[in-house]
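hiii so my PI (J.) wants the whole complex modelled not just the main chain, which honestly fair. so below is everything: two entries, each one labled with what it is. i double checked the lines twice but i was tired so who knows lol
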Amino acid sequence: MIEKSHTLKQQIIENFGTPCAVIDLDRVENNIVRAQQLCDKAQVANRPHIKTHKSPLLAQMQLDAGAKGITCQKLGEAEVMADAGIDDIIIATNLLGAARSGRLAALQRRVALKVCADSAVTLTEYSKAARNAGRALDVLVECDTGQLRAGVETPHEALKLAQIIKDDAMLNFAGLLFYPATDSWQQTQVFHDELIKGLTSIGLQANIVSTGGTPNFVNVGKLRGATEHRAGTCIFNDRMMIAAGVATLNDCAFEVYTSVVSRAGAERGILDAGSKTLTSDTGGLEGFGYIIEHPDASINKFSEEHGFLDLSQCHDKPAVGDIVRVIPNHVCVSVNMFEQLIAVRHNKIEKVIPVTARGKLV
Amino acid sequence: MIEKSHTLKQQIIENFGTPCAVIDLDRVENNIVRAQQLCDKAQVANRPHIKTHKSPLLAQMQLDAGAKGITCQKLGEAEVMADAGIDDIIIATNLLGAARSGRLAALQRRVALKVCADSAVTLTEYSKAARNAGRALDVLVECDTGQLRAGVETPHEALKLAQIIKDDAMLNFAGLLFYPATDSWQQTQVFHDELIKGLTSIGLQANIVSTGGTPNFVNVGKLRGATEHRAGTCIFNDRMMIAAGVATLNDCAFEVYTSVVSRAGAERGILDAGSKTLTSDTGGLEGFGYIIEHPDASINKFSEEHGFLDLSQCHDKPAVGDIVRVIPNHVCVSVNMFEQLIAVRHNKIEKVIPVTARGKLV
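here's the output for the full assembly
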């Protein structure tokens, strides 16, 4: 790890207090370039998922590095990105709440969105929204291939939805959305090939075939027919990505600066970052976050504003008042807790980046 | 449960989309009155913890019902409450980040705060902040009595901190802060009595002796010497409070309205509320939240924006497009994810209450 100088910690606490979120711009830029190069090499377009950073400024950095467009998970995120002038957007979820509230139509009037569906009900709502917007809406059919997330489970069901889209004047069939597990690439290929055959038979073409996920970069381009990849976490990385073997500590660009606020017991301590800061997402790991200055200390419990430290295995124990830096288990949910990211380079604060789309739930 | 009419669900989705947060004002008012009555009966002052609702408007309702003042967990919360004219505030944590950033002194210039400490380091920072503010700061000593949260572990250590406060012209000794477990009331009494004896011997008096927690209402007033109680969750209640036996479903005033956005498998479904809405706080319970319309469905996993439903035990399975209401496991962290609470009474939307102090991390 780059050893952050005492002076930077002092500057940060004097200007922002703790807990606060700090990103290392050199690492962010390296991570952006690396993702773009992996997509370039695999000859698929890069469409980063902005759910991780929720910041138009960082999305623009990704576009400037060569990304074709962006992926959002919520309409509210897309609204923020559209406000910033970004107009090539896939929203990768069934949007029912946003469609029924009229916000989908309102945004569709401003930006030609691409949205996703895995049911006829969703398509009905999209059709209504498009009619209200006054222009047809591009729809991708979301397909599951073993992960049991959103997405139809069979090519047959996908084809039925494609037919509904084809038959609806307010909807355009735009392609397919996959999120294969890293070990189910073959299964996805079988699903994909059968579906493409069916689409061809009804006169449809999948202009977009999207794969997703940072761990899936190991397989990017392996799906014959894929046209683009959407990954979010890789811009910052986190403890989950290290555990998955797709990032090292040196690739982690997001850190929570937190103060040790209590050492009431000999073997325990308390940070001022709890579940309202780092969140209770474990990502399947032991402990909540990696403490850079004390890797042998573990955050073994949270209250809302406190992280409880087990220091029994920690030789050089932190003292009250120390500021330590934590890499969260799951960076996407932790970023979402902050109003701003303090962007540093070479131990200097370069700028403050607002997390403009944080907490956009609809 | 009150059966919310179809019309209310429609109004809510048309005006706000999903997911959104809805509070029942009758229940909120009942909960506020009940907490006040329990304190009145026990002859201790009521100082509700606003970390649960983070809204000046709801804090004012608590004050109007008889609360003496409020408790905050973060300086940023206290800033929001002070902006709304509330001036009797305890901040119940060691404030190091806020003290060193200058924000503690800035707020102390406007409002006479009461803050907490469990170490000499914290007291040093408080003294500096008070000097910068130009007036002495009231400090409570935080004591642990078996929970291993913040707080000194022995009366002897508490007394040492009280002496430091006494010797510092910029600090006033204001009292003691306890958070006893429901089963450690006797232990707290022993700690308290020994400490009071010590304080008397150095000429100090604990004007405030605060106990805390919604589950601890069963013991409120039992600690001889307690002057006030601070509880947060009881304004809304949640699945944890039901599990703890201190609330019923009918006492739960906060619900997340969420759409069923996918039914891609026969035994499974997906809600548009995931860990960025309900949070991954389990509160030690199985599943994430209670679905009012489908109590035999379980939310068994989250992704960031999706709640995954296991419908294998669910006889009357929800359909795509259904709106269901979820009582979260832990309401305090879920409220913090929303920008606003939709306040309803008798199936009518009465007003929208901003969660002004949400995400105040420092």
